Amino acid sequence: MAKANGPFFFAVLMIIISIWAMTKLITLTKGKPTLIAVHYAVMTFCVITLIGGFLVSWRASSWWFAAQDVPFGRYATILRIPDDISVWSDAAELYQKRVDSKDTRSHSIKLAILSKAPCQDAGRLIIQLHRAGMKQPDIFPIECNSLDSSWPDKTSFNFDVDIKSGNLVLISNSKSTKIATNPLLPLAFADEPEIQFTIQSNTQRNYAPVSSVDQVKALARTLQSEQAKPGEKVDAINQLGGAPLLASKMTSPGLNAGLSEPLYATLLDLQRHSDKQLATKARQLTARLPIAKDLAKLAKSSDARDMAMLKTIAASTSQQDRALFKDPGDFDAILNRGSKGTPASGETPPIPTYTREGDRFFIRASWDNKDEAMVGCVGKAFFELWGGTSLAQQVELARTVRTRMVFYTKAWAISMHDRLRQCQAKVAYVTGYTQ
Length: 435
What we know:
This protein is of the alpha+beta class.
């Protein structure tokens, strides 16, 4: 009651204060002609303040009561989302309120999606996530009958997106307790300029069927492109997930020919992408593929490029990836048997990491700059692989410093790593400065 009539109580309070102030002023100035001017000035100020207070209260009340009268409400709080987010559907109206935090780099926007149609009429609600580059949105349905039977009104509910756990949590209006959850991919909204968050009663995906190797290769190139946005890569993985020939063609020469690397290597790298939605999508797709069998085929290949990529897979595959194998020992056995570049001594291989875009690999190289042979070798390596300067300049730089941290694409990083190791320099894949 008090919350709904807040503006009215505020207006009444202002009237009481104004009347008290005027009475006090009249008492103080009575019989004192010199204070008449002050009397009228303060009285004028109080009248203006009173009128202004009524106008503000009336405007606030009109919005407040309009919001209170809507019977079906769905609310979401989404963290770190840009200002141009939009929410719409044929059965929804949007009330948006932004709450700024002290840190201008991070703020929350509270969205009230007020539906004109009861949930039970639709049977389900569909939340769609649109991102830049996606031809079709990701779809997360909420079944109306999943609500707890003790909840008084099944036609309205609150939902909150928990980014850390990746859950869509339904919350009771009266008790503010979690009553149901719906799996939702962890979403990364930071630095995403084009997001549209949609709620609809019904929707469906209309991807064109992927039935040829050429179509799969085109999608693979999108995943391997450094220019493609995370939304485009999510879209490509969604389409690859519906390709029936994918599992049987993953290591075939026809599929990987013309690609910058085997598709498996790309999917494994994307699992560690800093964009949480993209990483989760890549992990889900990889889990459906016969990874152990295909890596075994790759290990037997005589192609030098395949061997190099197998080394990269060995270096970048996490414990979570190893869990995809029925026997965790199978993974190590495949790599140690198939790749000469993988140490059998138990030495921990280098771990490629990524920047915000997830497509850069950092290398830190260190060497003894008093060793002329090593200095010459390192300088030549940077000259051959870096370019843009003379051999003499690179050698002099290697003589001046003892450590360099450089980054570029995965293929470049592999080549640079192997080349510097030949110089007896210490080389490791490391976390980038910008991460």
